[in-house]
Amino acid sequence: MTNRKYTLGIEFGSTRIKAVLIDELFKPVASGSYEWENKLENGYWTYDLETVWAGLQQAYKVLAAEYKEQTNETLTKIDAIGFSGMMHGYLPFDKSGTLLTPFRTWRNTTTETAAKELTDLFQFNIPQRWSIAHLHQAVIDNEPHIRQIDFLTTLAGYVHWKLTGRKVLGVGEAAGMFPIDSDSGSYDTTMMDLYEKQTAQSDKSWTLEKILPDVLQAGESAGELTEEGARLIDPSGQLNSGAQLCPPEGDAGTGMVATNAVAARTGNVSAGTSVFSMIVLEEALSSYYEEIDMVTTPSGKPTAMVHCNNFTTDINAWARLFKELVESLSLEVSSDKLFNTLFKKALEADADNGGLMSCNYYSGEPITGFEEGRPMFLQMPDSTLSLANFMRTHIYSALATLKLGMDILTLKEQVTVDQLLGHGGFFKTEHVGQQLMADALNVPVSVMESAGEGGPWGMALLASYMISKDENEKLEDFLAVKVFSSQDIDTLKPTEEGNKQFSTFLDRYKDMLEVEKTAVKQLRH
């Protein structure tokens, strides 16, 4: 303990609160977690703030116990700590620090009017889940609490505030509250002025400048853990106060750090039941697109986010069906073996996937303009229905909407992407999802073993960067040289034949979306 430096990263995800302790070599030493779920109350998806603290304490308790078991020492001193969480959402407080409404999470889609009005006003895409959309919707609806707001923050910002007394956010997290000016590294003051003029007649006594958290860059100090904060993490009293805290960040930013995708012309793809890509830009886009969210890296570089609601849910559903068939035959197969077999089969498909087609929309998909979805599988009378064709059709279908979003960047805006770092369950079967994604997006796709460590590890790296960086050392250099230089990276490049096959599929997929529109219209619940 005396001779080593430890940093702690804690992330409040949508289903799990996870804590990871790392050493000065950036290797995980101990971890702990706590499962939690949002709930629908009075029309809003929310989490109790009491559960925030109960979950944090339990995750830390498990981590501290694992540390003691491994080292035979009690964890009392941590050099640096960082908190991250689900981005966006709405946590308004009054002057006494009382929460004025239950926490409204990113999952709520109750801000359509506000998001559209703000997008038109700013000429900048404001998604429904952003904090400013939640705030403005409350203003439009003239909710009584509007007059009492003294401070507005995110989940990560709230936890950080309670542990340090400082009302701050990292720039990547702040970019999900209100648009960021890439030149200044803080909120866009022109848009702030537009908002104040737009709401001048509203019944409010605040300005955005007064109620939003201050914005900090990666590497800056964001305060110290107070004695009261130490007790909030560790009620047993063993954890000492005084740890340095780095700026709190969002889960998108920590994913970028955990995959070493924070330099210009790089990006990462998080691929699971939903999928999103984060592309770090050399300069801001020339225009705004409702399909593209503009955020930043933790060091403030402009970043384009392509988010698709639907990815592997449809594949998972078919896999469950196949597993049921196998078990009905009194056979046994593990889920891992089943998925590996199905994914590897996709590589044996015919060039045209046997003329099969599918749509993987279980829910709405903003990129293609769908408010609802109807999963479909289609075949022509002369199609070749084989397992290989079936599987590659569904994998291509999962990739199609992501490709349409990425095309806005690469074709309309001429954005160059040198490589994408992939992480998530889609890449679990070696090389299959990785190669098919490379072919679909026409970009090399890399996978690193450490990507599985996830956001909490990325947050711990940001805390390490704050206390370990050399003078003027940029985050991208710190990660590339000190953290990832010894990592084994598996990179697959797109193949000409694979790209051609996917392009042919995508043309048919666009035509199929007309069938999906009819299905949504005619097939009601």
TrEMBL record:
Keyword presence, Transferase: yes
SUPFAM superfamilies in alphabetical order: Actin-like ATPase domain
Organism domain of life: Bacteria
Alphabetical keyword list: Kinase, Transferase
Domain Carbohydrate kinase FGGY C-terminal: 268-466
Pfam family membership, one: FGGY_C
Name the record gives this protein: FGGY-family carbohydrate kinase
